[in-house]
Model the fold of this input.
Amino acid sequence: MEPTPHDRESPLELAPEEFRRLGHALVDEIAGFLASLPERAVTRAASPEELRALLPQGGLPEHGAPPDRLLAEAAELLFDRSLFNGHPRFWGYITSSAAPIGALADLLAAAVNPNVGGWALSPLATEIEAQTVAWIADLLGYPTSCGGLLVSGGNMANVVCLLAARKARLPGDVRAGGIAAAGGRPVRIYASTETHTWLQTAADLVGLGTDSIAWIPTDGELRLDLDALRDRLREDEEAGALPLAVVGAAGTVSTGAVDPLAELSELARERGIWLHVDAAYGGFAVVVPDAAPDLRALREADSVAVDPHKWLYAPLEAGCALVRDRALLRDTFSFHPPYYRFGTEDEEGPLNYFEYGPQNSRGFRALKVWLGLRQAGRSGYARMIADDVALAGELFDLAQADPELEARTTSLSITTFRFRPPDLAERGAAADAYLDELNAALLDRIQAGGEAFVSNAVVDGRFLLRACIVNFRTARSDLEALVAVVKRLGRELDAEMRPQELAGALRPPTSD
Done:
């Protein structure tokens, strides 16, 4: 074995001047990219094979390459071949335009690279995360004394909260004995049929199984039906089941519906059931002055999940789990093996985040959220979120006023609608199956075309186009452009797809 040199040369090190040169060049490229977003297509249609062909061919390179060339190649690939959720006409799913300060924050966080699992490994980063969690709670009207931490996103935030509920509500030592501690009684979690699929994942991961979920139907506004919930609770209790938690939604994925959280809170308190609110999407809308009372009632929950990378416009990844009882969150996750010498937290001592969640090694997610909160402030977020909500309402009005469109729902910043040729307006159920097929094809064509990007919802069995505006770059002119795109492409597809039995004024029957 050769002796280790005293003066090492690493192929990954960059001298200060080289780092500065590369960093300046990359920031200039990013600034140009962000400025060019409105003129770019939202995305470019490409197959997996086409994209794979753009990457280096063959196996892992034996020798390295110059970093300036690598950064230039990566930037060109990403700028030319991505779907841009920062584009002013991106309204698919619930992914926001990301604040530029968040991108710079991630660079800074990665450069320092603290491990925010133990205070000794990340003293300042830990305190910034703790302040960020408290500010998020304050923004929601939730107790700032709660326990909480930043996680990857809504799924993990909800899982963390459900694990806390399991520790709090199941009898016996659930951490040692698992769900067997429930004494063989079937455990139940109650949620509306509009609840995001995180619940199946969470029920599986925490050992309850998806059969533990009692799916409650919704009312005419797609909110959890309270009477149906009460009936199911009574049936389960008579059958010997153990109610664990009720899940309320503060903004469902499909339509943005907000469950009757105030009444759910009263019901949960009466029956001693954990109330968890999935506020990943809609929770931050509570900062708007005229927020609905049901939305404000999320402050009564035992736990809340929110996503700063949704309506706080932070870059991915940034979710947040909040649990009212701070000690309970620690009791749910804390272990102290002999190889950890981080001390034990007390009121004044250091905070170790490995005791609050499932990760030991944790990146510095909080910095981008913390800086965004400081840059915009409460009033800035209230204004941006209110603008998004108002724009969704304007899109609904545009669709409602247009004879070729059918507006269906609007709530928070989600609007659903569909393309409907005027001559099919009175055909009712006879045309619905065709309109489902037509709008599904229309969605594919819109997404592939790159002029705008929307997703879909299924409401009352009907396939709809869905626009979710969590985008501080969107203006009314973008919505008017979307309407024009939907109508133009819808007409083209209708001419291609209309079946003979539905031929009408816009497309006369063909002769034999």
Summary: The radius of gyration is 26 Å. DSSP finds 16 helices and eleven strands in the chain.
